[in-house]
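The following record pairs a protein chain with its ligand, zinc ion.
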Amino acid sequence: MSETEPSGEEPKREPIPEILHSFYEDRAFVSCTRCGESLADFDEGYRISKNFKRGEVIIEYALCLPCLDAMMDEASEESKRRLNEFQTERYREGVSGFGECALCVRTIGEARNDEYGFVGVCHGKDMVDSAMICIECMEDMAEIMSAETRQTWDRFREENFPGVPGDFKPMPTKPQPVNS
Ligand SMILES: [Zn+2]
Ligand SMILES: [Zn+2]
């Protein structure tokens, strides 16, 4: 099934697939959900996150890296450390795309209630990496975050998505190199 990957570390660029376009705006994301700046202007790129349940879009957003960092910075040291450990431990090397969970052995068809999140790492109009995280892994991740860290994400949700129910999970990310 899987194509043979070219060897080497060259990231694969592809146009952002329609599944990661904004469902509400009916086009590709153009601005950061948090700061409103144009996504194309960020050289470091941006992340698109979309959560689905039984085929419906529950929540969707695009965050520029400075905003993503700012959200992560608000997390307590304890949460950051635990989240990092969790991701390092669970992250499946070489798994990308939307078919399999990046953090456990479930395929997209095995996600409970058809609930999962898609993440796209994007630059300009291209996607350079992608991941699927099943609901159970999102729950595991939310559980290890402190109440205070969850509040940061709750506030973000309330400010940007007033109609969305409170079970929104923080955005799954891939392990980041630890800044020291
Ligand atoms: Zn931003
Ligand atoms: Zn999973």
